[in-house]
Amino acid sequence: MSSTCIFAQETEKLQIPEPLIVILGTGGTIAGTAKTASDGVGYTAAQLRVEDLLAAVPALQARRLEAHQVAQLDSKDMDFATWQRLAQAVQAQLARPEVGGIVVTHGTDTLEETAYFLHRVLAPAKPVVLTAAMRPATALAPDGPQNLFDAVQVAATPGASGVVVAFAGRVHDAVQVRKTHSYRVDAFESVDGALVARVEEGAVRLLGCWPAGEAVGLARVERSAENWPRVDIVINHAGADGRVVQALVREGIDGLVAAGTGNGTLAAPLDAALRDAEAQGVRVVRSTRCDAGPVMDLPGLLPAAGALSPVKARIELILVLLAC
User: Where's the active site on this chain (predicted)?
Assistant: First the structure.
């Protein structure tokens, strides 16, 4: 045997196996079905299992994949107990050395909230890629198969890490991503314009940095979901007063996020009610109802949420209260 052949054989022995990508299904429109192919809005979400979604993407058949169904719901109905199960499932899969990355199929309605929750609880060193669809699987031109294909490519990208959202050919950071359109297939934006990457014909082109952060850890969210702090969101608008806040305080609210106008500004009656709530032990944070931009933490004003949207500020406040 020639030395060339020996070298070739030894090189083959040293080849690193393709990383295993684990797909975790939670339902959503991507798994939805309608009675007719022309019906893009009158569908029922969460009808197909994750194995069915993979079967619809022949280009993934050669990939080393594993699928598990964690939940089966319309993401408008996402709840704390499902977040707990999902975080535990993601953590368990990431701990397996052969797993290179995770893909989570999800509904679009609360996708940004789940992404931020996983980011803050886990801050994984391996990629966790959430994806979804705006059209059901039975649509004339479903967007789910392409989004799922792209998400797997992102999860298998060498050096990728953190929680991201792969949708319509773009990869968003969990902190920045927001759903900004109710119908279009490109429904998500990075609100300050800083995309992590693009997926082009199956190739991932990195534009920024993979997200990193400090995790609070799974132990923080192990308390029974029924006993998690109650944190609600109130919004500032023309004619806003404090009656909603007062009613929530009477109901025993633990925290409030105020979605203010502009730089977190609040009508005087609403601001007064929130300060009264704070004096009674309710944690209050100011965010903004604007699609983008931070809220400045200025002297004399209620605490600011920075660049977090109201729904993400709510998650952050829940995590803070869970530590108390």
Answer: 29, 108
